[in-house]
Amino acid sequence: MHSTIHSLLPIGPLRLLSCVSRYTDMMLSLKNVMMAVVETLLNKFEEDQSKNKDVQKTTLQEQHTQCYTDNCSDSDSSFNQSYTFMNQEQLQLIAEQLDPNQPEEVRKEAMETLCSAPPSDVLKCECWNVLQKNLTLSLADPDSMFTERILKFYAKTFSSSPLSMAREIYVSLAKHLELSFNSRDGQKFTYSIGIDITNPEIIRVLKKIRLLNDYQKEAPSFWIRHPEKYMEEIVESTLSLLSVNQDSNLPSAQIFLDPIVFMALIDTKAVWFKKWMVM
User: Fold this and answer.
1) Residue 190 bridge partners (DSSP)
2) How many angstroms separate the CA atoms of 205 and 136, rounded?
3) Would you place residue 263 in the very low, low, confident or very high pLDDT band (cuts 50, 70, 90)?
4) Which residue, 120, 125, 152, 251, shows the most beta carbons closer than 10 Å to its own?
5) Helix (H, G, I), strand (E, B) or coil at 256
6) What is the residue extent of each domain of the chain?
7) Is 12 exposed, middle or buried (0-12, 13-18, 19+ CB in 10 A)?
């Protein structure tokens, strides 16, 4: 009975100070543990990145060796196996030759040459703004083989370039898709018709969306290491694409399929969105 009454009495000053002290010690200990965990994770991340770079470097060296040994002339093989270093004048010429107003053969040859250049050199060249504009416009070319070549260049850039450079390609692809869905070509895919995945035009759209989505899933793992402005460009271009507007007064038969519908087909569980929300 005495102990019960004692427990109901107000906490004394000394006991209160003791509780505050223990709470402070616990919070300090928890903070130190969390800092140690974060430091461990960052070190592990750096270690993994270093290993990946070493593996890529070794693989690239092996590919170069095989390329020179076999004297392979096939364009697809050379695309994967070797790089041709170019100066600013050469890259400037390629940028001009990729202009949609240029003859088809000139543009194709320019794209073949561009695919053999190191992505980092291309993204850092003085004429990148012109080159990016022409690549974005060229993605709408009706020649599927030509656009496939551009997508391969984009994919190579995603896999071999740091985020600060790869974001340029992501924004370019997202901008192209936005322009495409806002054009008449994008508005011919309506809910009334549905999605025929055997339709070559639908396949082209799905390939572009898939490449964009693959990068979306990987981007959050790099966010902790890069300035906020890089993330803003990626997020803003994504939201702009997914916010493509259409006339709400149109009859249901004329409402076109928007980007988010195609993205849902590629990423049925919205993995990219979950990763972005966690980060």
Assistant:
1) 256
2) 14
3) very high
4) 125
5) strand
6) 12-82, 162-279
7) exposed
